[in-house]
Each structure stands twice: as C-alpha cells, then as structure tokens.
Amino acid sequence: MTLDARSISRLKGVNPHLVAVVQRAAEISPVKFIVTEGLRTKERQAQLKAAGASTTMNSRHLTGHAVDLAAVVDGEVRWDWPLYHKLAAAMQKAANELEVPIVWGGSWKSFPDGPHFELDRRTYPA
Ligand SMILES: [Zn+2]
How far is the CA of 67 from the centre of ligand 1 (A)? Predict the structure, then answer.
C-alpha cells in the first residue's frame, strides 16, 4: 500500500528518518494504516494531558520524533490490539532495514500506547 494524501500531510515536520520508516512500513505491512498524528503543538499536548490521553508534557510529538498510526480494515479505523502487533512488526522490520532505531509505545509497561512509534531517544535525543 501507499500512504494516502492526508497521512502524508500529517508527516510534515516529522524527522525524515522516521518518515522513511513509516513509508517503508506502508510498503510491507500486512495491515493497512493511516497516520493520525505527527508533529504536535504544546497547546495540543496540554489538552491531551488534561484529557488523560497523554501522561507527559515531554512528548516526542512536540519535537517531530513521534508518529501515531491507526490500523485500517475494510476502510475503517480499528483499535484491536492484534492489528497493532502486526503493524509494530512491520514498523520494526522497516526500521531495521533502514537502520533507524525506533520504540513502539505498545511495549510500554505503565501506559501502553499501541498507535505510537518514536525514534529511540538514545540515538535521537530531542
Ligand atoms: Zn503518539
């Protein structure tokens, strides 16, 4: 699959290495997906934190080091975890190919975030 126009526009301001991983993942992923969010403003982050959708004001979205993806099945966005494990596997494979270390939010213990992928802070500090 290729990314749709809206997904591509949402990658604006995102680190080009992460954009390359997302684009490669789109080619190899068995699950279709869209990009729901890339670069985020401080104001929006504050709103998300207030709403309980995020736990931090130190989000990697603020610096263009993170993206959120949504799985699409039969034209509909789905939030089922098994889809995100497949998506994460495709993202990891793409990242390995391109030698860009990434971290999947779905692997976080305290606040698992299945749609979230970010560049590894050790290689890509803010
Ligand atoms: Zn995110």
Answer: 5
Q: What is the pLDDT of residues 87-124, one digit of tens each?
A: 999 999 999 999 999 999 999 999 899 999 999 999 99
Ligand 1 centre to CA of 74 (Å) is 24
**Ligand 1 centre and the CA of 22: distance in Å?**
14
What is 5-119's CATH number, 3.30.1380.10, 3.60.10.10, 2.40.70.10, 3.40.640.10?
3.30.1380.10
**What is the CA(44)–ligand 1 centre distance, in A?**
12
Say if residues 55 and 71 touch (Cβ distance below 8 Å): no
Query: What tens digit of pLDDT does each residue of 10-42 get?
Result: 999 999 999 999 999 999 999 999 999 999 999
Q: Considering the entire predicted model, what is its pTM?
A: 0.95
Yes or no: say if 47 and 103 are a contact pair by the CB < 8 Å rule: no
